[in-house]
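Following up on my earlier message about zinc ion. Here are the inputs again, as you asked, copied directly from the submission form:
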Amino acid sequence: MVTSGRNLTAAEMNQEAGRECLTCGKILRGRSDKKFCDDYCRNVYNNQLKAVTHHLVRNVNHALGKNRRILDELAGAGSHVTRVSREKLLEKGFLFKYITHLYTTRKGATFFCCYDLRYLPLEHDWYLVVRSGEE
Ligand SMILES: [Zn+2]
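Thanks, got it. Here's what our run produced:
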């Protein structure tokens, strides 16, 4: 068994851990809370984060827009309540994981909403599609 002569100081432990710039990976010197070697590396890192967020938001917005178009088309014009199968929705590219909000009626039925359109799961993979304010 090997026993060390003394405990390491915090600074020495940091050095041992090899703190690296989050962008370029260079070993950092100086203050222990430093994350980047310079402003350039900090900017590159922050811009990459923003780009990822922007990409994610754009994809979700796109999916919601598409879901809305599909429901809009299926709901038809006027105040008709439409029944549609899950298969039909999937065929059109509907993505069930994206909704804008939930709406619960006084009778306790919870609709999944996509902007101004709503749908309610029925039995056997059928859905009721309704325009907002018309149920
Ligand atoms: Zn760097």
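One observation from looking it over: The pocket of zinc ion is lined by residues 21, 23-24, 26, 36-37, 41 (CB under 6 Å). Hope that helps, and feel free to reply on this thread.
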